[in-house]
Design brief:
This protein is α+β, with helices and mostly antiparallel strands and about 190 residues long. It contains six helices and eight strands.
């Protein structure tokens, strides 16, 4: 398990969707979850950075778990997910300020997502409001954004949740690049 956490934690950093000490990842194992430690450096995880705790109840390890543990637990309760990736992808976060959903314009984005929901909450980090609003959305979508904060992606394994996070940021970059070129969705120039 450590190898998987290390691999995808490092990839999240290398792809630029997390800063040195941001984001968190978890997996569910029955009535237990393993989540990254509060303030851990995802690009260089060690065994001490993986915190096992209860899905339903706190135990002595809870004080070390990520500040987003409440959100991960709520997602596991409301979905069939066995893995959750929370990241802060810059292009996606920037676009989260533009509406209640993001509509991909590139082929891969359209194939994977159709649209990406954006949820607005007063408090975005580990709040009861996020734990209430986000999980029902992730029951129907692979990934969702918290306005101004970051993404949460679900999967049956870490690789799948990582893929949705990576693809989300790639499709959001395409949207931003197209806007920088002055293009609207579906518009192309024959002068390219």
């Amino acid at each position: 398990m450590l190898e998987q956490f290390r691999k995808f934690g490092r990839e999240l950093f290398l792809q630029g969707v997390n800063s040195s000490h941001s984001g968190n990842i978890s997996v569910r194992m029955g009535d237990r979850i393993v989540i990254t430690r509060r303030g851990s450096m995802l690009s260089d995880l060690s065994e001490r950075d993986l915190i096992e705790t209860g899905l339903e109840e706190d135990d002595s390890h809870i004080v070390l778990a990520s500040t987003e543990v409440k959100i991960h637990r709520a997602i596991y309760r409301a979905t069939s997910a066995l893995a959750v990736v929370h990241a802060h992808p810059p292009a996606a976060v920037a676009l989260s300020f533009t509406g209640d959903s993001i509509r991909p314009i590139d082929t891969e984005g359209i194939y994977y997502f159709k649209s990406i929901p954006v949820i607005a909450t007063e408090l975005t980090v580990g709040s009861d409001e996020v734990a209430e609003k986000l999980p029902p959305v992730l029951a129907d979508y692979k990934v969702a954004l918290l306005r101004g904060h970051g993404s949460f992606a679900v999967g049956q394994m870490l690789e799948e949740a990582f893929q949705w996070t990576s693809s989300l940021e790639a499709t959001c970059r395409v949207i931003l690049f197209a806007r920088m070129l002055g293009l609207e969705a579906g518009e192309a120039s024959e002068e390219w």
